[in-house]
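Bench notes, bay 3.
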Amino acid sequence: MPKKQFKAESKRLLELMINSIYTHKEIFLRELISNASDAMDKLYYKSITENLGLSRGEFEINLIPDKEAKTLTVTDNGIGMTKEELEKNLGVIAQSGSLNFKDGMRDKDGASENPEDLTIIGQFGVGFYSAFMVSKKVVVKSKPYGGGENEAFMWTSEGADGYAIDSCAKETAGTEITLYIKDNADGERYDEFLEQYRLKNLVKKYSDYIRYPIKMETTSSRLKEETADGDKPEYEDVTEIKTLNSMIPIWKKNKSELTDEDYNNFYKDKFSDYTDPRAVIHDKTEGSATYSALMFIPKKAPFDYYTKEYEKGLQLYSSGVMIMEKCADLLPDHFSFVKGLVDSEDLSLNISREMLQHDRQLKVIAKSIDRSVRSELKKMLNNDREKYKEFWETFGAQIKFGIYNGFGANNDGLRDLLIFYSSSEKDYVTLDEYAARMKEAQDAVYYASGETIARVDSLPQVETLKDKGFEVLYLIENVDEFCMQMLGEHKEKPFRSAQSADLEIEDDSEKDEIKKINESAKDMLTVMKEALGGKVADVRAVKRLKTHPVCLTSSGALSAQMEKVLNAMPAERKAKADKVLEINSAHPIFEKLRLLYGDDKDALGIYADILYNQALLIEGMAVENPADFVSKMCGLMI
């Protein structure tokens, strides 16, 4: 039969489809398998509506690679195509027989009459042409179900130059597509699509949950059963037809059908983890967006989790066919540790089925997923505190980053998930638990920052608060103070740092007394401040340090700990907190300073510097000039 030109589009359009629509050449197999699945779904629907007596178990897809002939054949025993359908579906680019079939299943009011277990995948009528990305020639033989003995036709094309349709011999109904694989060229290895391992991997990656078995003859090596004692073990090649796909997605099953072992094995196999997940979230949702989701909270963070190379995202499926390996838009940053997948038939995919056309449905799904993860974590927090603490030690920082990075937008959703170590409970507590224990006259939620719980617990300011009966939250991660500032308050009580110069826990009589002490020592404190050469914004006397001689506080929003964190980051300008050197007026060192002010102001400057460096050490911060500090300390000891 003479060659025909493609009806719908120009040669240039087909070339664009072959070379530009799809990101990866390997997608062709996903598209051909999806088309085969559609063909069998159509026949299954016909069987249901016309009582043909066919069962789903009779359908299958076969892959037949032939390295010598350099061909890959994909067969199905679906509904097949007549000559007119071959002409209409393959001779007209962007003519989707599957889409027309789906439209035909609607009643007069537009409602779908599709059975629940029938999933038509195709929409655009271009997936078939992806075969030309790896093929120099494509031959399609098809025979319609119920057709006569001689009613089989062959569609042949070498690409944009056109196609031919001829009669052919074919015994059974269905479609057989043979790809004549291109020769390797320009660094492209097309013959990889003839390798068994490559085809198995592609089926597993993209088409593992197609509802029909995808079969292929495979060869493997195994130990011979009969080997004489003492002989070297001998192996033999065994060839057998194997089913490559799982067919029924675990997330489509009811929870009652699944065990913890089922979930754990799926997670470890799918996401390459050797430990069981800490929690499983299995959702099926209908409404504004209909989808199934199976998500896991890992026990351990991936090795690259806190690096720029880490990519968040859930696998995205449409009707059991994988569309995206990692869809970042499905997960907020604060839950980027979640692994899993989402499967929805409602997604508006682009023509290549590799991404979405618009994000309205995705936003609805993402919002629902956010709620599901929060709910699971809250349940863990309330019902299994030890398990939650283990989770928190691994991923708690990410929750706090979510509050900080959201500029307050995520406060309501994440606040209830926060836990901090408590000075009174000697354990992690929630903000609500802290608030429930607050003293009646307490006007703030107190916290203190440091590198470790032990260091925070030894701070002079913390000792003072505990002595007055106040509970203190210990912040030991870099993001903690930034998180507190973004939260602002809890139960209408502001967060207040124990290391603030304006702690305001003294009563009126104490305030009057310390004011008098500072006024009487004003000149001495000024000399000390000047001796420190701008290292501190102020030097002042206090009475709240109990046994400690000195401490370092900060006035303003930026604390000494926040300064340390910010200056560890690359930046043109260094951050600078307004540090205040506080000296215990009830400590013997204060009288020593008074004597030095009267007798030796140079020595007073040395003492000021030593006390400043001691305050840094108490805060867990580095001494600015260790050699000078040691020299001055030795000078006092001689």
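Next record in the batch:
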Amino acid sequence: MNTQQLGGQPIFILPEGSIRNTGKNVQKNNIAAAVAVADTIKSTLGPKGMDKMLVDSLGDITITNDGVTILNEMEIEHPAGKMIVEVAKTQNQEVGDGTTTAVIITGELLKRSEELLNQNVHPTIITKGFKLAKEHSIKVLNSFASKVDIKQQEILKNVAITSMMGKSAEKVSDQLANLTVSAIIEVSEEIDGKVVIDTNNIGLEKKTGGSIEDTELIKGIIIDKEIAHSDMKKVIKNAKILLLDSAIEVKELEGDAKLNINSPDQMQSFIQKEEEMLKGMVDKIVATGANIVFCQKGIDDMAQYYLSKKGISAVRRVKKSDIEKLSKATNSKTMANINDMNEKDLGYAGVVEEQKIGGESMIFVRDCKNPKAVSILVRGGTKHVVDEIERAVDDAIKGIAAALELGRILPGGGAAEIELSKQLRKFSNSFKGREQLAIQAFADAVEIIPRTLAENAGIDQLNLLVELRSAHEDGKVTAGVDVFSKSIGDMAKLNVLEPLKMKLQSIKSAEEVSEMILRIDDVISSTKSNSAGMPPGGMGGMGGMPPGGMGEF
């Protein structure tokens, strides 16, 4: 409880049970929590990074080295720790890859900040220096980034392989990279002379069984449904596809309306009329020339029978998102009115077939003409493998999309960070105040990436760092950590490439969160009592209860 004295009388300004911490202790505690979170995922960075096994309260296991997945599964409670998790989430949403990089840089920036705080450098001076360093970093990274476009498929493939390195997918990264590049090319659209890629148009379906090598790209859509009626064809070649947003059912009476039937003849007449209406709906579908119907709503059992008699297959209760993807993949229109459709509204696919994958039926819409929505079916021996492959493929897809969004890439393996560090040190010399110390601290902090890559590969950090700095002083901008030969290497020649957007986002997020944490000098934690109006001792005013509760009867 916080109090102030007024003429000898204490003034209570916070509720009972509140805890307040102020001053340097707060900054040190917040920094310690943030650094601890960053250190947790440090060992996962790079091709030689290790995995984490996370077990939740229900005993479910996740095995991964994906930064954002680890932090989400850990359920971190410390407020500063939660802010670090937000860095990873933002990086994942904006870029899809580089979550571990962003978190590690954030942790190192805060670690360097603590050293400056111990030298009595004020937090506002540190944050000002960090902000200057961030702005200069953006300029530096842009200055030596290489151009890339959608026609340079080999470069895009290398970007995908780099993002998958160190994950379970590494041994088949070549095959998966080809799949992801092909998927990106299929869904890309040119709007006003600019290539636009919506990664939501690439569906990822995962099924346990087979091996990672069985992962395939479907030039169309996979729908986790089955054909509605057992008599309908399970394989439809040269499929003419009708998409319906309305039910193939007779509408039920609304509200409190009632229908009185007083004789068997009336009942028979009513059933006959209902059947005629359903038959009429089916006849309208037949008239379009469609041989497969995907319906977002229900299909009456009688309508299913009539459709099967006419040789038309149908799928009911398809998700709206799947209908939208089908429209993009097959170039068909989604019809909301069964009376307003014709042959022009139909889409096309080379084949639509129902297949059993991992013991479950799925519908594959394949061989579409110029599909703008595609699917990747991810396979693997166990659930944990499939989950990790899915994460790797998702990282690769988003990595390629990020590279194409800005049309720029950077050398990986810590090369970009070493060059950035060198340029920041030069930049710091133009300042005479204490901001210079903060900019130099920022320069030291970004070197954590090559240092961690070396550490995870079992390489002497100090010697490698000296060699890397020397190489960059000699103008070798693409020199980085070759974890396989345990020496420095030319990342451009080794095809270790990363999207510029990923680096920019990680630097921006790291600086902004570090600044926010450093500016906190007061933490007030409020805890509400269990029951309003009760004394602090609970029911003590009523005599209380014995330690063993109410005992046994």
